Amino acid sequence: MVLPLRVWLDEQDGDNAAPQLAHTVDISPGGGRLGGLRSLVQSGEIILIQRGQQRAQFRVVWAKQMGPGEIQAGVELLDLDEKVWGIDLPGQPNALGNPGTASAPPARRTARTDPISHSLSTRLRSAASLDTQIRWSVVVGTLLIALASVVYIQRRSAQHSEAQVENGVSPAAQVETSESSSPMRPHGNERVFTFLKDEQSGSASSRVRVAEAPQGHTVYPVSPDASLSGRVDLKIIIASDGRVKQVEVLSGKQRLVEAAARAVRLWRYAQHESNGHPAEAETSAVIQFRAGDAVSIHFPSVTANKVERSRPAAIPAQYASQ
């Protein structure tokens, strides 16, 4: 228990000397532990302690420097009949709380809870808990929205692919045609299966399969990057008037596929007939990009395994001849 005290270190000068202000840390009917002393006392000294209007003499049992500006001392009451504390306490044989002896340990102070402080603390804890709940709700909500967006995009992509299949178009991205100039986006080395559509596409069964090279001037592809090399395999559908009507890219790097498609759609083939009527034809070509500005094209041939045309390096495409 903490009680304010006045302490005279020299009990002979009780009325003449100025007292020190101190306080109790623990008390018992026969003594106590003092705190707040400004000077260190010696064991065995007799001091005078006043609590309210009551004064009594105490003997110092121990004294110790607990920290900067903090001196504590254990004292015992010389006259046990006196009640200097002014409080009725149960009798205890020894309650000096001397930390240096094996006597009974000092009684702990019981913390008294202030109702206002307790209420404020409870409200603060509740507010902190609510704030944590709100934050977790925001995080979970954001994750759910992101997951829903991914599912929606996947479903839309699947529906778009199904619609393309129903319309006879490959699900892969389309390359630009002679009527459309929308570029394809590069995707590294992935292989693509792309169709260039035309409004008047005929059925595959009505086409004539031919093995030939284009007629006249052959436009050579230009590599988008001098460091790129690779092979592009093409299936070419020839319209009845000899124009390139449709190109199916069987394999190749996407950026090289774009370059090849731009050149192939400018080629012109011979016109073909079936049963005396103009008909579409189907052939193939292999374009080999050899890095730098070198490009070779392999065409099928009836009389040989292949017909190869090459454009050497460092010759611009617009000046390359057949």
CATH topology of the largest domain: TolA/TonB C-terminal domain
- Shape summary: rod-shaped
CATH architecture field of the largest domain = 2-Layer Sandwich
Query: What is the makeup of the main sheet?
Result: 7 strands, mixed
Number of structural domains: 2
- H-E string: EEEEEEHEEEEHEEEEE
Can you tell me the CATH class of the largest domain?
A: Alpha Beta
Helix-strand category: alpha+beta
Distance N to C terminus: 111 Å
DSSP helical segment count: 2
Number of separate strands? 15
Indicate the radius of gyration in whole angstroms: 51 Å
Oligomer: single chain
CATH homolog superfamily of the largest domain: TonB
Fold and architecture overview:
20% of the residues lie in helices and 30% in strands. The strands form three sheets. Strands 7, 8, 9, 10, 13, 14 and 15 form a seven-stranded mixed beta sheet that branches. Strands 1-2-3-6-5-4 form a six-stranded antiparallel barrel. The chain has a two-stranded antiparallel sheet with strand order 11-12. The chain folds into two domains: 110 residues, Thrombin, subunit H; 126 residues, TonB (TolA/TonB C-terminal domain, 2-Layer Sandwich), CATH 3.30.2420. It is built from two helices and 15 strands. With 322 residues, it is of the alpha+beta class.
What attributes does this structure have?
322 residues; single chain; 6-stranded antiparallel barrel; 2 domains; disordered C terminus; 20% helix; 15 strands; Thrombin, subunit H; 7-stranded mixed β-sheet; alpha+beta; TolA/TonB C-terminal domain
